[in-house]
Amino acid sequence: MRSHLIKGKQYKPPQDTTLSVNIHFIYGAIGEILAQNNDDQLQYCNVLVGGETIGRAHPNESRYYYLKDHLGSVRVTINDSGTAIGWDDYYPFGLQMPGRSWNQGNAHDDQKFTGHFLEQEGGLGIYHAHARMYCPETGRFWGVDAMRSAMPGWNTYHYTFNNPVRFVDLDGRMPGDYYDSSGNLLGTDGKKGGKVYVAKTGNSQSVSNAIQNNKFDTARSESHLLPSSSSRERMGEAVIRAGENSIHEEGGIGVQRGDSDYILDAKRGPDADIETGYAEINVFDLKHPEKVRFDDVLIFTFHTHPSGTINGFPFVQEPSATDIENVGREGIVGYVLAQGNQTVYIYNGDGIITTFPLDLFINVRSD
Questions:
Q1: What is the pLDDT of residue 49?
Q2: In which band, very low, low, confident or very high, does the pLDDT at 238 lie, cut at 50, 70 and 90?
Q3: N or C, where is the chain less crowded by C-beta within 10 Å?
Q4: Where are the alpha helices (DSSP H) in 126-228?
Q5: Closest CA to 220 of 240, 241, 198, 236
């Protein structure tokens, strides 16, 4: 679990304009709020199950628990004895209804619409939706969707396709479709233009269960997000260049460029060494280095493993120890497009994360 402190937020509560407070949020590995500090003083810790916040514990106080509706919105807050100490009703886009919300018995009352954190300091009244801030008064995010290019027909600030009764936006980003390592669809939220996830090895059942229970934070944490469809198509072109019965490798790197990932192809690797039986490629030896931009950020590498034979033996299809060491040194992810068994191996410095059928990897879409 990683912890991340967001510092430097200076708020002036309306009741005391002479006082500034430093609010520090401590986050978990999938972006969930674990605790809140005022300067160095702990204010509360959240009670979480499977990445979902189900309650809250305050220092020297009893625990509070949340009763939620079908959207995940907190409707009633109870204490250890089961007594209601707060309740909320909402308009469709998340604004609390006046006269129908009461939480005087609940200190730090800020877990609200669809389970998001409501920022009330300074009278802001906006939700922390992980990737973006959301305003329930306007029904719009305050920032543009990082994947807006995939939805050119929609306003880049829209919330749940203007249908908050049917859809839930869990983190301010585009959701997606989930597959197991054999290419079977585990589930989807039904939205168009989303992302494609593959369950990590051994996690298919838990991902499927999470999707059925609308626990998409959990589903994402136990899955691997594939590159964009355009990048995967470009990676597929490396397979075409390598050809059938290949004895050399093709590949390149993937970089984050602006709002999306982008492929930079490497020069062709040499034919396999007859004596050692190894094929290799330097994925950083780019065909067109002049296409690299100053703000490109390296996020993955990719290369093929040949489908031919050398000295009568087939090439190893899994990532080699060197492959794993190389991405581990960079702190990124690698993709081996294995032509021999038509499998994509997805790995990092710790080893193979998951696998996926090569044809689906190149062609699958979340439409």
A1: 80
A2: very high
A3: N
A4: 204-212, 216-221
A5: 198
pLDDT reading at 226 higher than 70: yes
Runs of H (alpha helix) within the chain: 204-212, 216-221, 229-242, 321-330, 358-363
pTM for the complete prediction? 0.56
Task: Give yes or no: residues 204 and 293 share one domain.
Answer: no
CB atoms within 10 A of CB 86: 19
* Least reliable range by pLDDT among 54-68, 146-160, 211-225: 146-160
The sheet with strand 223-225 has its strands ordered as 185-188, 176-179, 195-199, 223-225
CA distances from residue 312 to 274, 318, 334 in whole angstroms, order as listed? 11, 19, 28
Q: Is residue 228 within 8 Å of 260, Cβ to Cβ? A: yes
96 and 77 together in one domain: yes
Give pLDDT tens digits for 279-289. 999 999 999 99
Structural domain contains residue 248: yes
Write out the residue range of the structural domain in which residue 219 sits: 175-225
Query: How many separate domains does the chain show?
Result: 3
Please report where in the chains the tokens 């009352």 appear, as a residue. Answer: 109
